[in-house]
Amino acid sequence: MENETLRVIKNRRSVRSYLDKAVSQEDLKILIKSGMAAPSAVDMRPWDFVVVKKKSTLKALADVMPFGKMLPGAGAAVVVCGVPEKSVPDAPEFWVQDCSAASENILLAAESMGLGAVWLGVYPVKERIEGVRKILNIPENVVPLNILSIGYPKGLEKPKDKFEMEKIHRERW
Fold first, then answer.
1. How does strand 47-52 pair with strand 116-121?
2. pLDDT band at 157; cut points 50, 70, 90
3. Torsion of CA 22, 28, 34, 36, to 10 degrees
4. Name one GO molecular function term (predicted).
5. What is the pLDDT of residue 2?
6. Per-domain residue ranges for the chain?
7. Can you say whether the dihedral through the CA atoms of 21, 120, 69, 61 is positive or negative?
8. Residue 166 phi/psi, 5° resolution?
9. What CATH code would you report for 13-152?
C-alpha cells in the first residue's frame, strides 16, 4: 500500500532544468529544517549549511563544478558541509554519513514541496572542495560534501524505477 511518504520517495528525481522562479526564504528554511531532522551518529550533527541565492554566486559555483551547469538557472542552492571535529570523536569520518542523510532529507522535502533538486558531488574531489571553499569562504576545517541545486522544475525529468531484485541478498551474500 502506497502512502504519501512512499510516493515522495519513489517520485524523487534529479532535476536539472528550472522555471525562472525564486525559491522563498520560508521554503529554504523548511528544507534546511528537514536536513537537520536527519539521523546522525551519537546525535553529534556535524553539519552546517550554506544557502546561496545570488545568481553571481550560483554562476561561480557552476564554474568549479563540471556537472553543475544548471546552477545559474536554479532558484537557490544549499551546500551541505561537514565539520569532522564535531563528529564522533573516535570516528570523525561519520560526518560523511550524517551529511548524506541530511542531504537526502532535503532532496525528499524538495520533492514533497513541488520543488526539484539535484545532488552535485563536491567531496572527495580536491579541486571541487577548494573551489567551493574559496567562493563561499568556507573555513579549512569544514568540508563541502555537496551542492543541492534547487528550483521549480520545468517538468522534463521523470522518476526512474531503480528497483533491481538481483541486488538483494538474503541472510548472506
1. unpaired
2. confident
3. 140
4. oxidoreductase activity
5. 86
6. 13-152
7. positive
8. -70, -10
9. 3.40.109.10
